[in-house]
Structures are given as structure tokens and as C-alpha cells.
Amino acid sequence: MKPIFLINAGSSSMKWQLIEMPSEHVVANGQVERLNLPGSIVKVNVRGKKTTETVEKLDEVTAIDRILERLTRLHIVESLNDIQAVGHRVVAGGTVFHASVELTPDRIEQLRELSELAPLHNPLEVKCIDLLAEKLPQVTQYAVFDSTYFADLPEKTAIYGIPYDWTKDFQIRRYGEHGISHRYLAQQAAEMLQKPLAETNVITMHLGSGASITAVQNGKPFDTSMGLTPVTGMLMGTRSGDVDPSLIPYLMKRLGFRTPEEVLLKLNQASGLLGVSGVSSDMRDLHAAAGDNERARLALDMFVNQAVKLVGAYYTEIGGADALVFAGGIGEKDEVIRAAIIERLGVLSIKMDATLNQAGATGDLGTTDSAARVLLIPTDEELAMAREVQALID
């Protein structure tokens, strides 16, 4: 069986996998970290043999070129024609796309028109789709959407306190992000808890350069931190998270911006950890600088505080949780941030085992007397995507 090629292009990284279906055998995988930043890191894992190299700087185009070159040079595939299908993670499907779809020229144009719902992601993802259509013209491409997981949020958490006619006329609502990841994490958590998903309450934290937190009640998403667009929610790598909407006209006057879009660009690309610290959008750089840089420490403190605020609110909102789940680049790899978040949640009698947290292995990180389990679950958006693509092929 020819494998499926999965591309997961984010705001600062690009992950990929080559998976044989339906066996779910991973032929190879890898990622490009620090996308569009100095010192891009290229990781490839083929049959357990891992390689890492650091290059000056890769953007989405050069990253895909490098990935495709590796597929043939390392004989992962003999020819790019050996790829059965390509699946793309697409953040925002809006109200246009309610399920995964095969990508046709008309649907690609529809994705272009949804760019304002995810300005850091959808244009990037469409660029990747266009590039792979050029590189692999005989291969069918599919889109798997983050937003579909949140399509059935209760209206009391999905809509804003604006005139209700605006909500309906202009499809203004909380679309969320990282839905592919949050769905996967909720399913995996239910298995670890040995409970039916429909009886499981969990709070899933996808913490990376893009960060979002979701409350899952009785197996279904009840609330999530991102909104109409991914700039909302908690502080992120370059995104501001929630701000007072009055900030936009205020900054237009103060900074001489002519359009709201100029302010939104700064909120998306020059804010968050980068904007507060003045150092970097990468958590590793902030930890390195925090010893003698007050703004780097402030950015770290704000990130932790906002995560705690959201988890605390969601814990109350869904009437308690069976488990809190850490995932994403920061959630999976940064034991300092995990410990800081759980320490602040001690008021809820949620407790971390320091030794387990330091080890950072998949599974339980909490103490035996913690009011909720604390789980580390590496997310696998690519596997979830492969299952969606295979279902469409079938």
C-alpha cells in the first residue's frame, strides 16, 4: 500500500509523517523547528534512525523542498509518485467546511477566502497546498480542519456578547484551533483513565508557539480559549492572546496606523512572548535569558499565569475534571512550565510528582492524592489526520 504524506504546517514549525494505512505504520517522520527564524532545526526519523541538523533559516517553501528531497535521497520512497495522497492540517474551515474534504481548485479558493479567520495559518497552509500540487501533480490532496472539532460548542460558550443578528448574519463565533490535537488528546486521556469517552471530563492543554486550552465535558468540547481567530486566548509565541478591542482604534491613533489590519498584524506577529520579552518567541531562548533579563522572566510568568487562569475557569465550568493533559512542544518538553502551572493549581488540590515531571515520560505526572490526574500525552495530529484521509479515500 502506498503511504499517505501528512503535512502539519504551524506558525513556527512544520511537522510531517509518511504513514502506511490502514496499518498506521509510520514509515518516517520529522519536523522543521524555528520556521522563519534564524537557526532552523531539521529533524528526520527513518526506521528509528534520527538525524538533526541546524541550517541558517527555512521558510515554508524551502522547508517543503528539503523534506521532499530527504524522502527520495534517504530512499524513504523510491519516487515521489509512490505517495498515495497528501493530507494537510488546515486551521480555519469557518462555516464553509464541516468535515475533512478532498481538495479541488474551487475548494482551495474557498480556503484562500477564509484567510482572515487564521491569518498566520490559512495563507501558509494554502501556500503548502499550492506547492505540493506543483511538486506532486498526480497526487490527490485532502484538508483536515481544526475548526470542525468545535463546530458543536454550546452556544453559551461559542458566541460573543454582541447583537445576536450579527452572530447569525456574519457567522461570528468561537471557531477554536488545534481541534485535531484536542480531539486526539481527549480520546487518549479516556483510554488512560479507562473510562468511556462519553463519561470523561478533561482539560487539554496544547501548549506550543500556538497555545490553546480546551474543556471537554462528557467527551465533547464545552469551551476553548481561541475564538473567531487564533490570535485570541492565552499569550503565545508571537500572538497577543486576549486584548481589549478598544486597543485597536487606540493604537491606530497613537502609532499612526491607517487600517485595523496593521494593528492585527502586530498582534499576530510581533506580540506574545516575543513582544513582551523583546528576546524571542521560543520558550527555550526565554529560559536561557531569564536569569538576567527581567522582561524574559515576565513573559514566562505571564504565560504560566494565563494558563492557570484558563484551567481554573474551565475546571469550575465543567464541574471538575478527571485529568489535566499537557501536550504540544512546550507542554511535552518543558518540565519547568508544567511544574509552575500545577503548583499554582494546588488550591484545587491538583498536585505534581516532581520526579515524574522531571522524567517527562508519557503518562501520569501527578501524585496519588491529586484531585485530578495530571497526564503528559504527546499529541499525534498526523495520525489523526491520516485516519481522516483514509476514511475519505475509502
The structure class reads: alpha/beta
Quote the CATH topology of the largest domain: Nucleotidyltransferase, domain 5
Kindly provide the radius of gyration, computed on alpha-carbon positions and rounded to a whole number of angstroms.
Answer: 21 Å
Number of strands: 14
CATH architecture label of the largest domain? 2-Layer Sandwich
Q: Total number of helical segments?
A: 15
Strand order of the largest sheet: 5-4-3-2-1-6-8-7
The unreliable regions are none
Assign the CATH superfamily of the largest domain.
ATPase, nucleotide binding domain
Mean pLDDT value:
93
Could you tell me how far the N terminus lies from the C terminus, measured between alpha carbons in angstroms?
A: 13 Å
Walkthrough of the structure:
The model has no long low-confidence stretch (mean pLDDT 93). The protein is built from 15 helices and 14 strands. It has 394 residues and is an alpha/beta fold. It is globular, with a radius of gyration of 21 Å. Pathway: Metabolic intermediate biosynthesis; acetyl-CoA biosynthesis; acetyl-CoA from acetate: step 1/2. This is Acetate kinase. Homodimer.
Secondary structure elements and pairings:
Layout: E1 4-9, E2 14-20, E3 25-33, E4 40-46, E5 49-55, H1 60-73, E6 85-90, E7 101-102, H2 105-113, H3 122-135, E8 140-145, H4 155-158, H5 164-169, H6 179-193, E9 202-207, E10 211-217, E11 220-224, H7 247-255, H8 260-269, H9 272-277, H10 283-289, H11 294-317, E12 323-327, H12 328-333, H13 335-344, H14 354-359, E13 363-364, E14 373-376, H15 381-393
Parallel strand pairs: 1-6, 6-8, 9-12, 12-14
Antiparallel strand pairs: 1-2, 2-3, 3-4, 4-5, 7-8, 9-10, 10-11, 13-14
